[in-house]
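Continuing from the previous page...

OK, I double-checked the sequence for Cytochrome P450 against my notes and this is the correct one:
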Amino acid sequence: MRKAVATAFSTCNLRTNFPGIRKTCMQMVEVLKELGPDGPVDMDNATCRMSLDVTGQVGFGRDMGATRALLGRDEPGQAISATQAALAEAEMGLIDPLRRYKLWRPDVWAGKAATRRYHEMISRLMADIRRERPSEATIAAHLLDVVDPRTGKTLTDEFLQPQIAQLFLAGSETTGHQASWAMYAVSQDAEVEAKITEELASLCLLATHKSPQPRPLQWDDLKRLTYLNAVIKESMRMYPVTGAVPLRTPVKGGGDVTLGGGKLVIPEGAVLHMPIAAIHLSPALWDNPDRLDPDRWLQENAEYVPNAMLNGKCVKRYMPFAEGARNCVAQTLAQLNLTTALAQLYGSFTFRLASEMGTAEDVRAAEQTMVTLSCVKGMMMHAIPRVAPVRAGSRQPFCEKQFCQRREVLQSRKRVHSSGYSIEAQGSLIKLGDNRVHNYLGQPELV
Ligand code: HEM
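Thanks. Re-ran it with the corrected sequence; updated structure tokens here:
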């Protein structure tokens, strides 16, 4: 099964899928433009939606509508709510294996209903792909062609449906959380963001006043985005979303496994945990492991421990997708999705962490690992257009400088608010001078 699906993630296949992935990521840019910079957006939720849509696109040639739904309201049966609720229930089940027997609890019934809705969504999708075969480059087309060596026939729905269900669960929150951790890391380091924008500008992928619409990202650009890819790698080192998950059992019947010239014996049948996060952050393996330093990925062989060999092989210290025969089968897709999304997002916006997230310490303190690593508070951010569309009547396009000035005004208004002033009634204001502002419609007002 893995072998058959793996070909769906080949470079050639992903190249065919690239325009669809780019379009799906671009949808998020459009949605963020529509939402505007004022109200913070939960970028973790947004990127999880985007990666669910990418999985739908690459997997089944379907637009799941999760990113667009950010502009409206999710209904319980919709792809994003169904997937998130089913995943949350699966996580609760991992924490409490007896949960499914606790039928006196209303939340257990709600969880069962959520899981049912998710499987209904998957079986609708299954019926769709049986009725109308998706393009050959989709994962679905690869799945439909898998032949069971025991029967010589293609696989039944009963067998395929759980595979599809696993793909959506494995594909959405992993990439989504990873993208939002990368954005968090960048929001904390102006120099790193400056280098990203410099690289994008050098490839004409950055919105500027002269060219407000960057040129579309092309497949060949991906390998030229050396620094952005280094930032992604570094954020996967510091915030590995599956840092606590993988478990491995030595091959049955292979006897005990001896490592380190006899120093460590792993008894046959023992279950091993791969502590990815601990390896990625170990001071024994990395210089300044707590520092975001994308430049370390510009050196050759950065994923190996320098000057260390084990059984004649270099020793790996970087494994965000795990290692071995059951590592992430879709890592090429995940990497492509991350680069495409972040290149397009940073090409059009700069992101500022919203005040409700608190300080960097507050964000780290709110980390939670269920199946994947996320932040309890989501990742609330202001998406500030690099070059904003000129609004009707306004004198200048809205940009980051104005965003900061406006926040200043709104904050001072908040103080006024306590003495009876209504911010809502005044709308959004842009500061012009000492005490003059004009609103979105360009009408001057007095503060
Ligand atoms: C940044 C994003 C991602 C990360 C960090 C990640 C990480 C991982 C890791 C660590 C494993 C191994 C788990 C274990 O050993 O127990 C895994 C397995 C898997 N991943 Fe991913 N993953 C990502 C994205 C995706 C995407 C986008 C898909 C599919 C659309 C996907 C599908 C799978 C599947 C099907 C497996 C099971 C493979 C097997 O058992 O042979 N992953 N992933």
